[in-house]
Amino acid sequence: MLLKFAIQDFKDDREFKNLSSRTIGSYLLTLNEFQGFCSERELIDVNDITPNIIKSYLLYCQKQRKNNPTTRNTKLHLLKIFFNYLQYQEIIEEKKNPTRKFAYAKEEIKIEVFNDQHIKQMLGYYRRLKQRDKQYYAYRDYAIMLVLLGTGCRSGELCNLQWREVDLVHRL
0.70 exceeded by the pTM? Predict the structure, then answer.
């Protein structure tokens, strides 16, 4: 099967599974970049792609595109999902899955945390804003900061929080 048709089938499958357009867009961004990389090397069929091609692509991402390890790992993860889909659909055999034995690059993780002074400054700012403006958005922003700092949840998680997920009785 041609790579471009395999990508289209994969996209259709992700849409059928009702994945978000943002997730599908992320898949397509990487897969289209990979397809372009393969086209430059005259590789148009999924069965022509070997582990060496995957390795060359990841090296290209590292050296030419200057992608950091996290970005390269994300691209590898998306390629693994794509080729596992092709394997599941019996378009390629398990032994022909070029991403099967790939390990992720080591990432240097440095998490910067707020110290007590930073937290006091942020809460003080929102507290003063709330007292000065006495408008809805000032109270809302203060409450949002309290939830984010108090729970450690991410802003996206808070935005997607549903009422049914909140338990005020057990404080969860």
Answer: no
